[in-house]
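Sanity check record (used in CI):
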Amino acid sequence: MRPRGPIAARATLGLAILTLLLAGLARVEASPQATAASQGMSDPALARSDYIENCGGCHGITGSSAPAQVPELRGRVGYFMCTEETRAYILRLPNVAHSRIVDDGQLAELMNYVVYVLGKDSVPAGRAPFTGPEVARERRQALSAANLTDERARNVAIAMRECGAPATLGAMYDPR
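Expected output for Cytochrome C:
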């Protein structure tokens, strides 16, 4: 026989609320790791640290370099995940391809931090994160002798045409 009455009803209600709260907390706790893994980062803290040490001086710690004449990353760099050609472009940039980070997997994680964390919603849906083998392949073809202004303009045009990137991507930073 089940106990009845206001005390039993309150206990049952309290237990149900506690169960829901704990389930919600478990989901919140699991979320950052699941998100990081789906974005190609096994260690997001290391990827962030690598970014700050190797890129943050010019591009800004938060990816905002404005008003410097260095491309702003925040909310924009993800558009370059648009096509195979634009993906290769950002891996072939001299400061990426010739990075002091020699481990291709670690550099892939840094670049995944750049595009998924700093680039935020600019990454087109369904684009896979960078991998170590992809970084190894592309960094061997660094744009060391290329006119980087022309290369950027060409790749911005591709991202605008193929993925609807905004025209402001052509500017070093969003003037808004």
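The chain is about 55% helix and 0% strand. If this sentence no longer matches the regenerated tokens, the check is flagged for review.
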